[in-house]
Amino acid sequence: MPHGHRDRHRFWTSRRAILCGFAGVVGASVTRANDEASFSFGLTPVFLDNNIPLLSLLQEYLSQQLDRPIVLVKRRTYREISMMLLSGQLDAAWICDFPYVQYQDRLTLLAVPLYKDRPLRQAYVIVNKGSKARIFDDIRGTVHAFSDPDSTSGYLVTCWLLALRGQTPAEFFQNSFFTYSHRNIIRAIGGGLGESGSVEGYIWDVMKEREPHLVDNTRIVFRSEWLGFPPVVALGASRDLPVTQALSAALLGMTSDRLGREILSLLALDGFTKASPDLYESTAEKWRLVKQQS
Amino acid sequence: MPSLLRIATWPLMVKVPVLVAGLMVTVAFTISQVVLWRFAQDQESHLSVVTSAYLDGLSAAILPAIIRGDVWEVFDALDRGRRRYAGVEPRFVIVELPNGTVLAASDPLRFPVHSAVPEELRRQFPADGGLLIDAAAGRAWLARTLRTEGFSVGRLFAEIDIADLLSDRREILVTLVLVNGCLTLTFVLGGYVALKRMLQPLGVLTRYVEQIRDGRVDRIPEGYRSRVASEFGQLFDRFNSMARALSERQTLASQLAEQEKYAMLGRLASGMAHEVNNPLGGMLNAIDTIQAHGNDPAVLQTSLDFLKRGLAGIRNVARAALVTYKGSSDANLLTQSDLDDLPFLVQHETGARRLRLDWQNRISEPLAINGPAVRQITLNLLLNACAASPLGGHVTVTTSGSAGTLRIAVADQGPGLPEDMAALLDQGAPATAPSPGSKGLGLWMTGQLVHRLDGRADVEYPGVGTRVVVTLPFLLKEALDAAA
Questions:
Q1: Architecture of domain A2-115+229-278
Q2: Is the pTM of this model over 0.80?
Q3: Do A179 and B107 touch (CB under 8 A)?
Q4: Which CATH architecture describes the domain A123-224?
Q5: Which ipTM was obtained for this model?
Q6: What is the pLDDT of residue A64?
């Protein structure tokens, strides 16, 4: 298989980079004061962050582009990354658009991924393939799997759908739990742990190609409208810093670099683009409606 | 056949290999049981250790998530742990909350989140935790109460597939059966062959003993002696000594029998002399009468008739003695006349004891059988019957030949033939003759002759006296023609 072969080759040639990447992630627990020259970049499961070769390539690429060591920082929840970014422990982060709209006044957009040449993606509600549910309302009374309380596709969209019906998750579902990863949502629903789940459409689509044995056990019962893709952001205060601008340029210029194209290929993205905050107006509206209901 | 069921009658060549097979099977069965039992013990002990380690690892991984009630984390740990523990193959694992509902299970479709653990399933697990093995089902059940700071936060149930362990046991059992089976078969065949070789001298000895039964006393050749084990060598030596002694004794017995024959003839001759002498006086008187009154034709005729009858009687007695002594002209045929003159030979015996002899010779045509031997058998039995009968008794002799069998029955009214004497007539009796001077030499000779002619002699006791029935086979005319 060409994909597999390429991935393997990349894996072996980048062993050092992988080890460095791990070191970088582990090193993130150390305060930035210990290493002023490095650049800390926060990651969330808005993309397939379980791909270790991808992380090492990303670290290598950014390190080359920014001409400094890159520390990739991963945490279990979106909130932890958001808080680290807002508290200045991270220089930039790839976060979900839901935290972005929550803290839009303090954050600045650096780049937005292009998926199928658009900075947009959908949220899906999925069920086990053995389920009799056909539409969203059929999943009433099921055990539901959410991704993260700060995820647009993995929480907010479903809450918004329920808010439109004047209900909360606790009222609509028999029970619910969080998996803190879109990939885990697919595993949980495919394995029967939950009967329905809220999942990122981009992740579901990519996994359908790459891990069909997991995705084929699930079926989509609801697709949201196109929403802004989770952005790469930095604190507004650091917008004009050269390193922040360098990060933005590195992401926007990824398509013109061999390593960058490799990363994009692994991400199944077409590149990064600049976008205005208006892109996330639909997400912000949903948040406002849900907030009013609660 | 009943004799096959009696193990004591089995030949050694069968008995010993069967015994070896029995011992081997017993030993193999015992060893197999011990090996399998020990192996099962080790497996269960090993399984206990491995499953305990499995539960330790799993408990440590899921305990914090259970406290938080984190369904996904528990499921994720169970799912990832499914294939990470060597030697443990869980079919399913359930984490139960203290309220009896499922927090998460490795097979959520079968045990959904927040459903109750089925009661019949719960009963399969050991109530006090630990390991329960059901070898028949190929399953093991584990249960453990999860505690933190002394409080129970849930229970963990796991069903383990131990089919591999049972498969290992089956493989060992099959190996043991095959190896032991091959060893048993080898030992049995080896034992059979070795024993057959070892018992070969016994076969030689048996053959020579059988020859003695048939009347041939041969010694075992020296060639055999040098090829057998020393025990059999000694046995051969003793057999040869015995055969030599037997041969000498048989020769002696034959000589004695011959002497007995002549003695009998002597007795017969004295009786015959008496029988001849009796008419001689009358005959001389007849001659005197002829000399004195020969001119009278009537007297002459009467005297000559008297002389003729006297001479005929003398001729019959003389001829009978002659035939007994010399034998008839054709030794392979028996005619009615070969037996019909026997009453003349015993005339003195019957006369002296006033016995009534009922002579019924029904042999109508010549029979292909040794005539002199049959004549000797009949004469011996007749003399014996005369001697046994009381004064004025009744002796019956009946002979008949039909369908290839000659039957001679001699009955007397004596006190009954003693069993030890009757045994001498038995053709299966030891081929040793009575010691010289003892009684029964005539009967022994008769038995020998009957045996030589492939016949049999039966002694019957019909209430009064004894009846000896001799049956002898003879070739029929058709068989004779075919042989010719």
A1: 3-Layer(aba) Sandwich (3.40)
A2: no
A3: no
A4: 3-Layer(aba) Sandwich (3.40)
A5: 0.77
A6: 95
